[in-house]
Design goal:
Elements lengths: L2 H8 L4 H29 L13 H9 L3 H14 L4 H20 L6 H7 L3 H25 L4 H21 L6 H17 L4 H17 L13 H14 L4 H17 L3 H14 L4 H10 L14
Helix pairs in contact: 3-4, 3-5, 4-5, 5-7, 5-8, 7-8, 8-9, 9-10, 10-11, 10-12, 11-12, 12-13, 13-14
Length: 309
């Protein structure tokens, strides 16, 4: 219908109908607000009462690295609702939801992945939120790259969103899917590092690809995934940590990656040293404290570090 026809028709509508339409719209909007609030409650049942009304990415990162994934999920939900075009918040939210699922499945004990998933009451809702946020972020990043194909930040976040999906499907759930996302992540991160070899987050994410392919894929078929080398991945992360000088949470991400790899490689002395440094800045992280209680009991009680924001 053309604007002219619509405008001419509008003059013939009685005023009382305009009032009725307005009332109906108000009722619909109120109903939608109720639905959204109800959905937010389901996805984040432990929304932190202590969070400010306008949470920051830094607050969400602190909850995430302290291992409080429920609160981090609540904060990132608010962040993504307030800033739907913020890829940093979107990526952190998918990371948080990924770790929520990993923790929930781990709480089921030493069960196979299929059984653990079936017994996990919270997992389907978290998975739905993860998939929705991943698709939203990927769509936003790809649209931006259509206009600015060499945008470093967008390339990184697309690669990181893809990797979160790959780690969940192939690693946490054991599904043989996610290969398109794997290749897109690898290409995106390689482009970032060609443009800026010193991009710390891209170096860490790319090192994880090297490490996982080098440890989980049989040697004879690694070439099918572009190759991988666990020693190269471990060295790359260690270099980033030793170099230092990055943003606090960027450095934290690198240090957690190093600690994870050291634990996997059974490098206990190195893992203890890294865990001690991390526990100073993230004293509420139960996984760090559990590790230190077992391997270095005298280090289990550590004061908060002075460098933590």
């Amino acid at each position: 219908m053309s604007c002219a026809v619509w405008n001419s028709a509008e003059w013939r509508i009685p005023l009382r109908w305009h009032m009725r339409v307005s009332v109906v719209l108000i009722v619909i909007l109120l109903g939608l607000q109720h639905v959204q609030l109800h959905a937010n409650t389901l996805l984040a049942p432990r929304a932190a009462d202590g969070i400010a009304r306008s949470p920051t990415l830094q607050e969400a990162q602190r909850f995430f690295y302290n291992g409080d994934y429920d609160t981090a999920a609540a904060v990132t939900l608010a962040l993504c609702a307030a800033r739907p075009d913020d890829l940093a918040a979107c990526e952190l939210r998918t990371s948080t939801l990924l770790f929520q699922i990993k923790k929930a499945l781990g709480d089921q004990g030493n069960l196979d992945k299929t059984t653990a998933w079936r017994l996990c009451a919270a997992c389907p809702a978290v998975m739905s939120a993860f998939l929705a946020e991943t698709v939203r972020g990927q769509t936003l990043a790809r649209a931006r790259l259509e206009i600015h194909p060499e945008d470093e930040d967008t390339l990184f976040f697309l690669g990181k969103l893809d990797l979160n999906y790959v780690w969940l499907q192939l690693g946490t759930l054991g599904h043989k899917t996610g290969w398109d996302e794997y290749w897109e992540a690898r290409r995106s991160l390689d482009r970032v590092l060609r443009m800026n070899p010193e991009n710390v987050r891209a170096r860490v994410a790319r090192a994880w690809i090297d490490y996982i392919v080098g440890t989980k894929v049989p040697r004879g078929v690694r070439w099918l995934l572009g190759g991988g080398n666990k020693k190269r991945g471990l060295v790359a992360v260690r270099q980033v940590v030793e170099m230092g000088g990055s943003d606090f949470f960027v450095q934290a991400e690198a240090m957690f990656a190093l600690w994870d790899m050291q634990v996997r490689e059974r490098e206990v002395p190195g893992a203890v040293a890294t865990a001690r440094m991390l526990a100073r800045d993230f004293p509420e992280n139960r996984e760090l404290r559990r590790f230190l209680t077992i391997h270095a009991p005298t280090a289990a009680t550590i004061d908060r570090g002075h460098n933590a924001p």
